[in-house]
Amino acid sequence: MVNDREICYFNSGLTSENKSSYIKDVAAQFIILLDTELPDRFFFLSSCPECGYIGESGLEVIEKPLIPKQLFKLIYGRGQNQRAICSKCKRPFPNNMSDYEGRKQYLSKKC
């Protein structure tokens, strides 16, 4: 997270120390992506750093209460918490294509 003038930017690779080189790397990556034929819904895809799968991620319910989900929502006023998982190996939190590392993994597999 980089906190600049009371605005926080969340990104897995961006830090205060590397913000000048990181921004150049992201810009260079987007120039490469402009000349690449991307699949439909590219920014909805994920890449798993563990098994290398690239595709849409699944969801896993984190809270598993003993009550039905409709009753849970009625009592707590919200749905159950979920997290993204790799559709192939079920590893939690795969890299999204909206993230630099996810796109980097995608481009390394394409080339």
Query: What count of structural domains?
Result: 1
Poorly predicted spans: none
Report the sheet with the most strands, covering strand number, pairing sense and barrel closure. 3 strands, antiparallel
The coarse overall form would be elongated
What can you tell me about this protein's structure?
This protein is an alpha+beta fold. It has one domain. Helix content is 32%, strand content 20%. The chain contains 3 helices and 7 strands, in the order ββαβββαββα. Strands 4-3-7 form a 3-stranded antiparallel beta sheet, covered by helices on one side. The chain has a two-stranded antiparallel ribbon with strand order 1-2. The radius of gyration is 18 Å and the shape is elongated. The mean pLDDT is 86.
Which helices and strands occur, and which strands form pairs?
Elements: E1 2-4, E2 7-9, H1 19-34, E3 45-47, E4 54-56, E5 58-61, H2 69-76, E6 82-85, E7 95-96, H3 100-110
Antiparallel strand pairs: 1-2, 3-4, 3-7, 5-6
